[in-house]
Specification:
This protein has 552 residues and is α/β, with parallel strands linked by helices. It is built from 20 helices and 23 strands. It has four domains: 185 residues, inorganic pyrophosphatase (n-terminal core); 102 residues, CBS-domain (Roll), CATH 3.10.580.10; 109 residues, HprK N-terminal domain-like (Udp-n-acetylmuramoylalanyl-d-glutamate--2,6- Diaminopimelate Ligase, Chain: A, domain 1, 3-Layer(aba) Sandwich); 118 residues, Roll (Diaminopimelate Epimerase, Chain A, domain 1).
Length: 552
């Protein structure tokens, strides 16, 4: 498969979603039709408001981009049922040049695997097992179907039986002597135009008489067969071919291998590769969450290359990227944050600019190359820009942001100021979300030296809801910090109207002692004129980390 996912960070904000959609559109318009906008986290009410306003669907949700079993499995599943005959299985194998078939029931649950090797051993037994070559485990109906013959007289034709194959290619006397050695009700007699042997077999009450060569059977013979309860089949093949095909009328449930290894379609290739290699199996059914078989894998399928590539937008650190990003090729990064620890195996396009929003950079890509920008895309990029810059009031805003925003307003036919008011009034996380979800909705993980920490941000209009919920927010933040083993976890609750932030911090007391902003309550600090996580708070937290005693 080949696809390029344009994807933002975990717990995506408005800029991450809008820039992913916008840049995917740009790439498709500049020669990359396989570019698809994606997300690795849930949208929120403000993002949904933006998408609804401009009539855009949410990007595809992708929780993990690591190569999966479903990426390399064979999706066209050739299979048989437990009641299919060996002849049907062999025909399917020959037609599609395959060596294994899954045996599936009516619910597509795999009951076992059927191998060409095992079929061959059954149909062509070794010299010391030739006695088995006379055994035919089948029903009269299956015998007729396998031979491509005509069932002239049917007596209990659906009943599966353990029959003994006898060829009537001898004198009448010799045939009569052989009949004495076997129970008549188990005999399947194969004969050509030997009317004497046909009639003797019927008079003796054999289970089934198979007349070969497509020869016409006399009406009198048919009538006697009906009276004697003998089934009669007309085979179009010669005697030798007919006898050989009779063995293949057995139902495959009698020869399938019920010991097999199945693989979940969503399993990571890296996880199942070792168990597959260590097993003695050459093929593996692939199942979905309900146990239904949706594909087949062979060991050679593990050698396939998964052509899934990533373009990261609005982040450049693997700690913030979609799961599995380290196992696929990253071909581009479009971002406006500090440069982290991302490494690649080869040179890539890395565009990192000190502007207020990734949406600014994406819009600039359209403008620089004179690529037509759809009205809806212009609206999304405008939304991402004003959300990240608080409509150019954030200290991260630049003159270039203002220049790009003016162009987007004209294309989208949207007034940025009026839209910003509607955007921030569209949903309050502190009103709509429980505390554990609110503290992680827009949360990013960072590493500074040996320290790992997280910073989340909630943008509100006023601190009314914060005042009501600050205690439960601090409890939820503490649980989150402990669960992930962070040195500390911080939550910015920013009043976009007053340009002020209430900062909640849970974690190391030695770190909290380094914070010199006014303390409102234990673990809560007031940061006036601080609204930017990237440009204002993160550098300050890094400075605090550097001032911590080395013992911590």
């Amino acid at each position: 498969m080949s696809e390029v996912l344009v994807i933002g960070h975990r717990n995506p904000d408005t800029d991450a979603i809008c820039s992913a959609i916008g840049y995917a559109e740009f790439k498709r318009r500049t020669g990359m039709p396989e570019a698809v906008a994606a997300r690795c986290g849930d949208t929120n009410d403000r993002i949904d408001f933006v998408l609804d306003t401009f009539g855009m669907p949410a990007p595809r949700f992708v929780a993990d981009v690591a190569p999966k079993v479903r990426d390399v499995m064979q999706t066209e599943v050739f299979s048989v049922t437990p009641d299919s005959t060996a002849a049907e299985a062999l025909g399917l194998m020959d037609e599609h040049d395959i060596r294994f078939l899954p045996v599936l029931d009516a619910k597509r649950t795999c009951r076992g695997l059927l191998s060409l090797f095992k079929l061959s051993k059954f149909l062509f037994p070794a010299a010391n097992r030739l006695i088995d070559s006379r055994r035919v485990l089948s029903s009269v109906e299956n015998l007729s179907h396998t031979l491509g013959g005509t069932l002239l007289v049917a007596q209990d034709a659906d009943r599966e039986e353990d029959l003994i194959l006898m060829i009537g290619a001898m004198s009448l006397e010799s045939f009569a002597e052989r009949l004495e050695k076997y129970p008549r009700e188990k005999l399947a007699v194969v004969v050509g135009d030997r009317w004497d042997i046909q009639n003797l077999a019927i008079r003796e009450g054999v289970r089934v008489l198979i007349v070969t060569g497509g020869l016409e059977v006399e009406r009198k013979t048919l009538e006697v067969a009906k009276k004697k309860g003998v089934s009669l089949i007309s085979s179009p093949h010669d005697t030798a071919t007919t006898a050989s095909l009779c063995r293949a009328a057995v139902a495959v449930r009698h020869m399938l291998n019920e010991d097999f290894l199945s693989m979940p379609e969503n399993a990571s290739l890296a996880t199942v590769r070792s168990s597959a290699a260590a097993s003695g199996f050459a093929a593996f059914p692939v199942v979905d969450a309900n146990g239904c078989t949706v594909g087949v894998m062979s060991k050679t399928d593990f050698l396939k290359t998964v052509r899934r590539r990533l373009i990261l937008v609005d982040h450049n650190e693997l700690s913030q990227a979609v799961l599995g990003a380290d196992q696929v090729e990253i071909i581009e990064v479009i971002d406006h944050h500090r440069i982290g620890t991302l490494t690649t195996h080869q040179p890539i396009l890395f565009r990192n600019e000190p502007v207020g929003a990734t949406s600014t950079i994406v819009a600039d890509c359209f403008f620089r190359q004179a690529i037509e920008m759809p009205k809806g895309i212009a609206g999304l990029l405008l939304a991402g820009l004003v959300a990240d810059t608080l409509n150019l009031t954030s200290p991260t805003s630049t003159a270039h942001d203002a220049e790009v925003l003016a162009k987007l307003e004209k294309i989208a036919e949207v007034n940025a100021r009026e839209f910003t008011e509607k955007l921030f009034a569209s949903g309050s996380l502190l009103t709509l979300k429980p505390a554990p979800q609110a503290v992680t909705t827009d949360c990013k993980e960072y590493r500074e030296g040996v320290a790992t920490f997280s910073v989340a941000q909630i943008e509100e209009i006023g601190f009314d809801q914060f005042a009501k919920r600050k205690d439960e927010l601090l409890v939820a933040l503490t649980e989150y910090q402990r669960h992930h083993g962070y040195l500390f976890s911080a939550l910015m609750v920013t009043d976009v109207a007053r340009q002020c932030t209430m900062l909640l911090v849970a974690g190391s007391m030695r770190f909290l002692e380094r914070i010199d902003y006014p303390k409102v309550e234990p673990g809560i600090f007031e940061l006036r004129e601080v609204v930017s996580r990237k440009k204002q708070l993160l550098p300050y937290l890094t400075h605090c980390l550097q001032r911590m005693p080395s013992a911590d």
